[in-house]
Amino acid sequence: MSEELLTESRQTATTDPLVDVNGLKTYYDTGGILGSQPVKAVDGVDFSIARGETLGLVGESGCGKTTLGRTLVQLETATEGEVLFDGRDVTTLSGSELKKWRRDAQIVFQDPESSLNSRMTVGEIIREPLDVHDWPNFTVAVDDPKERSVSLSGDGTLTDDDQADITVTVGDDGPTVATREAIPMDESAVDVSTTERESSVTVSLSISVSSARLRRARVRELLETVGLQEEHYYRYPHQFSGGQRQRVGIARALALEPEFVVLDEPVSALDVSVQAKVLNLLEDLQERFGLTYLFIAHDLSVVRHICDRVAVMYLGHIMEIGETEELFRNPKNPYTYSLLSAIPEPDPTATSERVTLRGTPPSPRNPPSGCPFSTRCPVKIRPDGFEDVDEHAWEGIELLRDILRNREQRSVGIRERAKRLLGLETGFDDIVSVVEEVFTPESKTPETEQPAAEEMSDEERLEAALSDVPSNVRTHIEAVIELIEADEESQAHQLLVEEFGSVCGQEPPEHHSVSETGRMSYCHRHCSEHEEPEPVFGHLFDHD
Ligand SMILES: Nc1ncnc2c1ncn2[C@@H]1O[C@H](COP(=O)(O)OP(=O)(O)OP(=O)(O)O)[C@@H](O)[C@H]1O
């Protein structure tokens, strides 16, 4: 497709949303006893997916991708917010209305091994949704050029939907019948007659083929559609390879002709050689049936290849969302940048700097206040007066604060928390050891320069660790140490927040438009007063 055409089709796509998500939250364990916090798996997201578009959803493990995908197809109940599907909020549907809508939105799971019932044949697996939904419903549309009132007798249900299973056209030479392509039924299986009056017409319909037979025929067609063979109908999942099993999962998802499909890591469990084939199949199916996809993935190169736009998720929030190529080439959000910088650069002469994120994301039970990424952000805004503190000392402050922040884990000792956060195997005996670990200048770490720690007093060890830390920082770190030694951990944390905190840890950011194509980024750095990023990370925002 030429560049121009691509742009044009994408512009058309974004003006016609099929799925429109507003303020969506999905929390788990909301009825927690003893005041325990819910898991805020999805914590207020807004985005839309255009008809025919593939939106990628990426982010570290546990950031809420699967929960978001499952909430969109109503396999999880939204705690708050709405999911508009063709303009209708599906979070409020229940009973038969919900069942009817489920046909339109399906999901393909990551692991075809565990998502397919091993005791059912492949045919039964694909047929199951058809049975559950009593497919086909034999909806009948009547096209009468004289536009008289129409009634139906015999088989079928009258509809004015242009996607009716059977269309009867009333004509001077008698009625003619057309069946929809997805119904594997010959027109000759429908016996139709009409009784016409001046202002009304009655259509009598008799269908001579059983639903069971049609379902079997539909399954055979679906097998072929996904690149399997008719004779696979009676085989069991264990007789197939991983790629074939995923094709079965895809056929099952397509059985009811959905408009929207959540693909939850559809190729992650497959051999690399098979991945491309399944991805090609998904692309072909999208084109053939006009499908809209939410494509959840870990593998960013796959996302870059297959998605029109990408949403980057962190701790239940969408940090950045926009057109794929633009976002990959020039990420605007510090988290997107960090995530992308972890991909090995194909061009060895490329100069962009890698950002290694420390530790793992915070728990969604206890997310940070302010920006969700604030505890790990490489370009977090500093408060006035500390702009010149060197990176190493500032990183020490952030680490110390993070160790103390995790109130949820208060039962876990400071030593253990430090160990988990820093990913170090060596233990920490006390706060002095922690301060030593996080603040000791790198130039002083070789053992030859220092007497062994056990030969030094605590004062000497702290002196060595904080020797390069500027006095305006050091005063506060010493106060923190005193508070921790007095068992006043939460006060120590409070002190760090008050002295070294900034807007990033205090207020949630806004979503800022960061490109002409409408890409959005959730970061305080886009506010005019904070636009000047620190020189060390200047390249993050100076990339065009
Ligand atoms: N049924 C559940 N009950 C309680 N917590 C849950 C449940 N399902 C998921 N979670 C939690 O919600 C958070 C988001 O999980 P989710 O599976 O949506 O993330 P993810 O980004 O899809 O992760 P992965 O990439 O590993 O699949 C995690 O902290 C997870 O432990």
From TrEMBL:
* Residue ranges with Pro residues bias: 361-370
Under CDD domains, the record lists: ABC_NikE_OppD_transporters
* Ranges where the record places region Disordered: 347-376
> From its record, what is one biological process in GO terms?
transmembrane transport
What PROSITE patterns does this protein map onto? ABC_TRANSPORTER_1, ABC_TRANSPORTER_2
**GO terms, molecular function:** ATP binding; ATP hydrolysis activity
Keywords, A to Z?
ATP-binding, Nucleotide-binding, Transport
Q: Which residues form the ABC transporter domain?
A: 19-340
Q: Name the SUPFAM superfamilies on file.
A: P-loop containing nucleoside triphosphate hydrolases
What SMART domains does the annotation carry? AAA
Q: Which family does it belong to?
A: Belongs to the ABC transporter superfamily.
Listed name of the protein: ATP-binding cassette domain-containing protein
Native organism: Halocatena salina
